[in-house]
Every structure is written in C-alpha cells, then in structure tokens.
Amino acid sequence: MYIPPHFAQPDDGASRALIAAHPFGTLISAGEGAPFATHLPFLIDERGGEAFLTAHMARANPHWKFFDGVREALAIFQGPHGYISPNWYANPGRVPTWNYVAVHVTGAPRIVGGERAHEMLAKLAAAFERGA
Fold it and tell me: What is the DSSP code string of the chain?
C-alpha cells in the first residue's frame, strides 16, 4: 500500500486499536493462479511481547490450504473513511479525495488445532457475543 510519509503511522498501538475497533478484515493469499480473499473477524492475541492475529475459517473454505506457516498473506482492516469535496477547501482549483484509515498486516498464516484451536474459538465467540 502506498503511504505518503506525512500520513504514515509508526505507532503499532494505533494500528492495534484500529483492528480492535474494526475487527472484520480481509485476508488475501496468493492462490493458485489468482489471489484468494476471505472476509473474517479477527482478534489480536498478544503473547510473549508479540502480537498475532487469530481468526476462524470454515474447513469448507479452500483458502486454508495456503496456510503453511511460510507463505505470506495480507490482512486488511478499514476504519473510518469519507469523501472530501473540493468545495470544502478555501482555495479554488483543488481536487476531490477520499480520506481513510487502514491497516495492512502481513504474515505467514498457519493452522492451529487441538486445545489451542478450542481456546481461540472460545475467545472469538466471547469477544463478539459481548456486542450481540
């Protein structure tokens, strides 16, 4: 993603806060011949001073077959956004734009099974049931 330097956010805390506030992301992997995308709710799991994204994907979704812990994937989270009209500027001759906040996270997804998978599912359900 192109980020003009004056819009860059070097604070990981701000990125984590955006993900926590807007946890429904798009996970994109290099598929066989074309990119493969799945929309998922994510949680941030902080362990040992590192942050990990966790999500659950249905076994029927073939996307999980690309998760070998080596191949990189991209998760995209979008926050607030909106159209900016050139009519709002004091100086004429400006162009319209779109202001937005987004976080891109890269990493190598892997499958988690057994008791750890059950713990993750319980955390996901508990987090999103709070708002139901």
Answer: ----GGG----HHHHHHHHHHS-EEEEEEE-SSSEEEEEEE-EEEEETTEEEEE----TTSGGGGG-BSSS-EEEEEEEEEEEE-GGGSSSTT---EEEEEEEEEEE--B---HHHHHHHHHHHHHHHHTT-
**In the block, residue with structure tokens 């819009």:** 7
For 48-72, what is each residue's pLDDT tens digit? 888 899 999 999 999 999 999 899 9
pTM, entire model:
0.88
Q: What percent of the chain has pLDDT over 70?
A: 98
Other CB atoms within 10 A of residue 14 CB: 11
- Tell me, what's the pLDDT at 43? 96
CB of 64 closer than 8 Å to CB of 49:
no
Nearest partner of 18 among 129, 104, 127, 121, judged by Cα: 104
Can you say how many angstroms the Cα of residue 86 is from the centroid of all Cα atoms in its chain?
30
